[in-house]
Amino acid sequence: MTRVEVVGAGFNSAGRGDGVARAPQALRRAGLVAAVSARHDVEDAGDVAFGVPVPERGRSGLLAEEALASMVGGVRRRVAEILAGGGFPLLVGGDCPVLLGALAACRDVHGSAGLLFVDGHEDAWPPAVSTTGEAADCELGLALGVTATGVLPTGVLPGGVLAGGVLAEPGPLLRAEATALLGPRDGAELLAHGVASLRESLWFATDRDLTGRVAEKTADAVATVEGAAARWWLHVDLDVLATDQLAAVDYPQPGGLTWAELTEITATALRRPGCAGWSLAIYNPDLDEDGHEAARIVRYVEDALSCLGPRPQAPAGEGTGRP
Ligand SMILES: [Mn+2]
């Protein structure tokens, strides 16, 4: 049995308190904690507190900059405590920027972090160019340091020190060689807006690349991440699913994965001892009146977690010991 700690981070980077912000509460109501306890010791570690998001674009071009920084700091502290204590964090967003806090925590405790990123979008828009202003369109680019990080408020990229307008110490949260993307399908939209795709710069497989080859591709993605980082994070944006599988997301697109494909990817990741934690983002309970989508998500979590084995402890001296 592994101790799984469920942490909610109901942050909506649109600067609102509804929509995805309500997901942790809705998924608990649908039985998330009990589903985890079917096979693991489970602790509900509650929700991360953060400032009230304001739907105005700041200097970086992002909405709700201050709340974003406080959310990332709160997630970082909570997830780092869980990792340092030998637990497995299941971080429930909110939207994708919760990942920034998780990666920072992983780096704090384990010294560095890789990422298996499962998402219908690449999430690497430069903030000032983003049509929405939502950090949820940008967090992977920010973590990799490929978009304009110099104008972010300190705290959005934890531990980063702004020097001469660029992010200096200790560098990007994430290295491209320790990152793999599974399932993005927004290449045409990025092209139409002149936004650079990550496709050529790291391990990358679209939804179509995965069709009929999920096992082989996922094994290859995991091997790539593990070749560059002993410990790594699994991030799942549920909009990687096709709309006929899950409709309760804010930015649907054609294409996408089936529940069976997503479960296989997730289970493969969770089987690996290097997988340090898991974040789940983007479910919008306001688009799921009868709660049937929440019930399906809970079943997916239960199925995938049945593959989670014991986690190795962080060896003494590994990482920086912060915070
Ligand atoms: Mn996303």
UniProtKB/TrEMBL annotation:
Pfam families: Arginase (PF00491). GO terms for molecular function: arginase activity; manganese ion binding. It comes from the Bacteria. Its EC number is 3.5.3.1. Signal peptide: none annotated. Gene3D superfamilies: Ureohydrolase domain. The keyword Methyltransferase does not apply. InterPro entries: Ureohydrolase, Ureohydrolase_dom_sf. One of its GO terms (cellular component) is cytosol. PROSITE patterns: ARGINASE_2. It is an enzyme of class 3 (hydrolase). Keywords: Hydrolase, Manganese, Metal-binding. Belongs to the arginase family. This is Arginase.
